[in-house]
Design a protein that fits this description.
The complex is a heterodimer of chains A (107) and B (114).
Chain A (H helix, E strand, L loop, with lengths): L2 E3 L4 E5 L4 E3 L2 E3 L5 E7 L6 E5 L10 E2 L10 E3 L8 E8 L4 E3 L3 E6 L1
Parallel strand pairs in A: 2-11
Antiparallel strand pairs in A: 1-4, 3-8, 5-6, 5-9, 7-8, 9-10, 9-11
Chain B lengths: L3 E4 L2 E4 L5 E7 L5 E8 L3 E10 L2 E4 L6 E3 L9 E3 L8 E8 L8 E3 L3 E5 L1
Parallel strand pairs in B: 2-11
Antiparallel strand pairs in B: 1-3, 3-8, 4-5, 4-9, 5-6, 7-8, 9-10, 9-11
The chains are: A mainly beta (107), B mainly beta (114).
Chain lengths: 107, 114
């Protein structure tokens, strides 16, 4: 079965602290994984995709096929990072989303 | 540059009423989908479409109907609203599949069923 698991509903960190939002997936085949973000009062938008190996707004995510994980990391959190983060799996014409993690960055 | 447009933004329904949530995209995307967002449950797929005339069920399709007569439009119909359908509904469109795909979302419709 195709599934995305985000174990943390809420993650609170202080400004300047490192951040890691966890994501594990279940998928038979080569997965296409993404992180989407929803800032307050804004629509959901793509943050990054695993294939690009890019860093967006200081965030990176590495696909670990052995551990079936795609954790999102940032070395130094900023207050503007506070948002809802969703890990997603692209599974043949549709997306499977995790339950989301709300990140709160405290001043 | 409209992207994905959903109407209405807010709606209150009485139990048993029916209504249609509208979704339109102007990016000529093949794939469109509907999700509901509930606290603690994330985004759950209701129905999706891979092109005009082709739709399929997602994870939580019961109580909802869809059709795709054009590439641009993908309306979601609630047949007989129930309080359990109180949620925020998101429409999304995407192009291609695989490594270069990206989903674009509407701003959401907040539905309350009383």
């Amino acid at each position: 079965a195709q599934r995305v698991t985000q174990p943390e509903k809420l993650l609170s960190v202080f400004k300047g602290a490192p951040v890691e939002l966890k994501c594990n997936y279940s998928y038979s085949g080569s997965p296409e994984l993404f992180w989407y973000v929803q800032y307050s009062r804004q629509r959901l938008q793509l943050l990054l995709r695993h294939i690009s190996r890019e860093s967006i707004k200081g965030f990176t995510a590495d696909l670990n096929k052995g551990e079936t994980s795609f954790h999102l990391k940032k070395p130094f959190a900023q207050e503007e990072d506070s948002a809802m983060y969703y890990c997603a799996l692209e599974g043949t014409y549709k997306y499977i989303f995790g339950t989301g993690t709300r990140l709160k960055v405290l001043a | 540059n409209a992207g994905v447009t959903q109407t209405p933004k807010f709606q209150v329904l009485k139990t048993g009423q029916s209504m249609t949530l509208q979704c339109a995209q102007d990016m000529n995307h093949e794939y469109m989908s509907w999700y509901r967002q509930d606290p603690g449950m994330g985004l759950r797929l209701i129905h999706y479409s891979v092109g005009a005339g082709i739709t399929d069920q997602g994870e939580v399709p019961n109580g909802y109907n869809v059709s795709r007569s054009t590439t641009e439009d993908f309306p979601l119909r609630l047949l007989s609203a129930a309080p359990s359908q109180t949620s925020v509904y998101f429409c999304a469109s995407s192009y291609g599949t695989g490594e270069r795909t990206e989903a674009f979302f509407g701003q959401g419709t907040r539905l309350t069923v009383v």
